[in-house]
Amino acid sequence: MIRIDKYLCDNAGLSRSEAKKAVLSSKVTINNIPVKRCEAKLLEGTDTVTLNGEPVTYEKYSYYMLNKPTGYVSANSDSKEKTVMDLLSSEKKKNLSCVGRLDKDTTGLLLITNDGELLHRLISPNKNVYKDYLVTIVKPLTDKDIKALEEGVDINDPTPTKPAKVKVIDDGNIVLSITEGRFHQVKRMLIAVGNAVVKLKRLSEGPLKLDESLSEGSYRKLTAEEIDLLKTL
Ligand code: URA
């Protein structure tokens, strides 16, 4: 059982104060009966709820796409640093976790969810889910560098990196696609071929592409189509 104000926060995207206001102003029903008390409880997935006459359906899991800005660490909490969770309003922190970490100075697509199974599938190197990064580099790659990155490079780990894909955009920019998520992996791969990363942005995780209309620091819920795409992995 869950309180109606909490249910509205979780499933209608309202803040706690908006949810309370909606209940107190008789805009909410449970099983077609108007509720007036925020303490009223319901059974998620069984009882029906409306807000302003529209159904508010139960969402077991939440999925958000964040365009991560620089300056934030990809963690749920940190004693010193700002975390990406600080960018989500407090009502939305329902046991959410980041799907793979981005460095503090990396921008771009960060998927945040409480669906543990999907999270595991996306970050598992055995599943061969490609993550595409737009990488600004200090100097052009040679054909030899590209071949090395495509075959796998030694980054001082017990094993070389798995084969990557390289798309050269121009002398200073490439798209590097990798299936693993080792610590500072892209930066270390570029160092391994005598280059260095100037700027790094994640463009996609598997079939999920960064919505370029999201400005840095903004986020939105995934659409039903995007969730289905991820589930086909
Ligand atoms: N590789 C890196 O080096 N940094 C990131 O943030 C992501 C991949």
How many strand units?
Answer: 15
**Anisotropy-based shape:** elongated
What is the alpha-carbon Rg in Å?
Answer: 21 Å
Q: Describe the main β-sheet briefly.
A: 9 strands, mixed
The CATH fourth-level homologous superfamily of the largest domain: Alpha-L RNA-binding motif
* Total separate domains: 3
Strand content: 25-35%
Question: How helical, in percent, are the residues?
Answer: 10-25%
Give every kind of bound small molecule, once each: uracil
- Oligomer description: single chain
CATH topology of the largest domain: Alpha-Beta Plaits
Textual characterization of the structure:
The protein has 233 residues and is of the alpha+beta class. It folds into three domains: 2-55, Roll (Structural Genomics Hypothetical 15.5 Kd Protein In mrcA-pckA Intergenic Region, Chain A); 61-122 and 223-233, Alpha-Beta Plaits; 130-205, Alpha-Beta Plaits. Helix content is 22%, strand content 27%. It is built from six helices and 15 strands. It has helices at 4-12, 16-24, 116-123, 143-151, 185-192, 224-231, and strands at 2-3, 28-30, 33-34, 41-42, 49-51, 54-55, 63-68, 97-98, 107-113, 131-137, 165-170, 173-178, 197-205, 208-209, 219-221. The strands form three sheets. Strands 7, 8, 9, 10, 11, 12, 13, 14 and 15 form a nine-stranded mixed β-sheet that branches. Strand 8 (97-98) and strand 9 form a beta hairpin. Helix 1 crosses helix 2. The chain is elongated. The two termini are 33 Å apart.
